[in-house]
Amino acid sequence: MKILIAAAGSRGDVAPYTGLGAALRRAGYDVALATTDTFAPLVRAAGLEFRSLPADTRVPGGVPDRRELMRTAAAFISELGQGFADALADGADLLVLSATTAPLGWHLAEAMGIPSLGLYLQPTAPTGDFPPVVTSSRSLGRLANRATGRLALRMADRVYEPAVARLRHRLQLPPASASAMRRRQEQASWPILYGFSPALVPRPSDWRPGLEVVGNWWPYHDAAEQLPADVEDFLRAGPRPVLIGFGSMAANDGERLSEIAVRALRRAGLRGILQAGSAGLAADGDDVLTIGDMPHALLFPRLAAVVHHAGAGTSAAALRAAVPAVTVPVTADQPFWAGRLAALGAATDPIPFRSLTTERLADSLSQVVKQQTCTRAAASAAEHLATEDGTGQALKVIQQLTDG
């Protein structure tokens, strides 16, 4: 039984599917993960077949405004659509789609006559409980939240429209718009599992049947893997440090951010680890260490706090490790997750990226590390996450689909 998972975007949009794919492989499935070439090493390290999706996932430097973000998304989707059909050239019996790939994958599933399933990392369906996660972090009221959610879907349809038209032509399918296909899937109660914790986002009661919140899927890492010796030495040399990193955000802004980070750490009297990321954070000193990528599951439990951009994966990893956060959201869904962490009490009030200063960061670090309120809230959330089995829930649904 061949399962093809298709996911595209930043590292946080892809890595959770490596752990899920590895679990499916252990359950006896033949699993391929189609994504962009940047993440081929992640896919192969998990023991999965890699299939290439042609698209540039690099995030532009600075903080893009909404119009620039839409232009970047449109170019990304256009490029993705041109080669998307190639990912199915070797066939599949089930197509598993992320929120980014689903509007294209639906057409492939139709052409191949195979079932498909949505496994999403962000809540995408309109609800009165909150506005669209990519447009606002503040509730607009139930009616306005739902109306704005429907508008966000229509805007996404427009971004996908040209790529969908070309893809259906290539697949020799009759014309059908992106919006018509989405409505068809909604009316059929196409199943979507959401891979985040209900501790952060409970399932809205006004969602249609077929939408379920099951808990996180965690990135794959080898059980035998250990932290590098220099990281272990630094961790053992003093009190628990604070990790500061912005993932794939803030490209080309490393010098300014590094200076703010180090000054804030020293002002708060804390040791720190800077994770280089796309920003290129770097600093030297007895009280600070610079690192590259390494598994959150190994590092986060050893920390006093994490300063991060509030991506969905990093937010969940910090909670899982019972570590409080200072969030510095940059764009897209990050303000939404930052607000959720603060509402849970596991993070300080967000510091918008454009408003980040040494003083604000130092004050938030002092609050989150020394007052312990956020630490207790993070520990409580970690207990909740430990009871969840998002991977097991997904496996159960996939088995139902493939057995049928």
Automatic annotation (TrEMBL):
Q: Which Pfam families match?
A: EryCIII-like_C, Glyco_transf_28
Which keywords does UniProt give here?
Transferase
The answer, when asked if Transferase is one of the entry's keywords, is yes
Erythromycin biosynthesis protein CIII-like C-terminal domain: which residues?
Answer: 285-387
Q: Does the keyword Membrane apply?
A: no
Which intervals hold domain Glycosyltransferase family 28 N-terminal? Answer: 3-64
Mind telling me which InterPro entries this protein's record contains?
A: EryCIII-like_C, Glycosyltransferase_28, GlycoTrans_28_N, UDP_glucos_trans
The highest taxon in the source lineage is: Bacteria
Among Gene3D superfamilies, the record links this protein to: Glycogen Phosphorylase B
Q: What is this protein called?
A: Glycosyltransferase
